[in-house]
Amino acid sequence: MKTTRRQWATAVGALPLAGAQGQSAAPRLPLKAAFAVTGAETCLNNARWHPISTGAARAVRDYLDYKASGGGAAPDYGGSIQRRAKALFAGLINARPSEIAFIPSTLAGENLVVSGLGLPTAGGNVVTDALHFEGSLYLYGAMERQGLEVRTVRPREWRIRLEDVEKAVDRNTRLVAISQVSMLNGFEHDLKAVCEIAHARGAVVFADVVQAAGATPIDVRASGVDFCACSSYKWLMGDMGLGFLYVREELLGRVIRRSQYGYRQLSKMDYHLFPYDPPGGSIFEWEQTHDAAGHFEVGTISNTTAACLTYSLALIQRIGVERIVEHRRPMLARLREQMPRLGFTPLTPPDSQSPIIAFAAKDTARLEKRLRAAKVDIAVYPGRIRISPSIYNDMADVDRLLSLLG
After folding, report:
1. In which region does residue 73 sit, left (phi positive, over 0), alpha (psi from -120 to 50) or beta (all else)?
2. Per-residue pLDDT, 12
3. Of 93, 96, 64, which Cα lies nearest the Cα of 81?
4. Would you say residue 5 has pLDDT above 90?
5. Residue 22: is its pLDDT beyond 90?
6. What pLDDT was estimated at residue 24?
7. Which of 14, 38, 133, 271 lies 20 to 30 Å (CA to CA) from residue 331?
8. Helix/strand/coil (H, E, C) string of the chain?
9. HSE on the CB side for 171, CA within 13 Å?
10. Whole-number mean pLDDT of the chain?
């Protein structure tokens, strides 16, 4: 159906309230009818990339219809979408919107933090762990070749122990960099405890929260974390190409500085070049903004993904992250109980509450072929598998997987 200019103007005016009005009732779980993927396969691989809901797909189509129309009736529609998505994410992690910058990916955010701290040339050491994201381990390995001292804590019984982190951090530690929830096995750090260890020795903490945001409660104020970043295509139910970087406000411009520059960092820009420009001593003058966007946003962002997130983030908040945790708990408990009986060795600590559970597995190539033929989707790697249920899954999905594995 064709959207009129009046409807676009109305949509823009209502956008800041989307998800707050007309969608107030908390939906019942599982939300099978809200996700088209449930009609195509049994998907228990949501830690790879989370399928979007039909409502989020509709929000994307609405934006694309607007873009196809030329956008003349509502020139700030894209800006409204961006502001709404940023405010919703800030609310999800108990941050201020001024502490959030758009980034293209989680690792891009971690790179911005590393370069903004002046590493590796500023000296000192970085502490990370072996359950951190593999791209991050490459990042710090490359920094190590440039002279940075990197200390990588190894897991014991598939967890990173706080006492081992404490031994690695000293007065020369500049940064502690971890994944709040490990993509490898679902181990979850006690983020507040890690921050207390680091801060006591003068270090700052970066947390990769891509496997936590939207699936595990995050409170940046309560934890004291200095920086965290995530893409949106996993548990935030967005898409590739757009994510969020949180930076604690009092660190901006002091502990961490701009290392890249772009027009999105400017609050004012004036030319003194063209015939009717105001006079000035330079061709171009500008003023920077002093929030997170003014330090770290560089170029254009994906408005289609931002539109998707205005729906998905509102949906997550309507459900409540605590309810999401409770919904998956019995499914994970059943997997934890039954998988060892089928010959799979647990790789996830037994007390884990994260959305990921992993097992060592033999002959995964044959296993993957069998699952694919049955249209059951989990993550299969050489020698291990990873299962990650979400809000549209139920015990029947888990039992179907178990029957195939058995």
Report:
1. alpha
2. 43
3. 64
4. no
5. no
6. 60
7. 133
8. CCCCHHHHHHHHHHHHHECCECCCCCCCCCCHHHCHHHHCCEECECCCCCCCCHHHHHHHHHHHHHHHCCCCCCCCHHHHHHHHHHHHHHHHHCCCHHHEEEECCHHHHHHHHHHHCCCCCCCCEEEEECCCCHHHHHHHHHHHHCCCEEEEECCECCECCHHHHHHHCCCCEEEEEEECECCCCCCECCHHHHHHHHHHCCCEEEEECCCCCCCCCCCHHHHCCCEEEEECCCCCCCCCCCEEEEECHHHECCCECCCCCCHHHEEEEEECCCCCCCCCCCCEEEEECCCHHHHHCCCCCCHHHHHHHHHHHHHHHHHCHHHHHHHHHHHHHHHHHHHHHHCCEECCCCCCCCCCEEEECCCHHHHHHHHHHCCEECEEECCEEEEECCCCCCHHHHHHHHHHHC
9. 0
10. 93
The phi, psi pair for 75, rounded to 5°, reads: -65, -20
Average pLDDT over residues 102-130: 97
What would the pLDDT profile of 209-219 be if each residue is shown by its tens digit? 999 999 999 99
* pLDDT bucket at 208, cuts 50 / 70 / 90: very high
Alpha helices, DSSP H only, in 54-190?
54-68, 77-93, 106-116, 134-145, 162-168
Query: How many angstroms separate the CA atoms of 283 and 250, rounded?
Result: 33
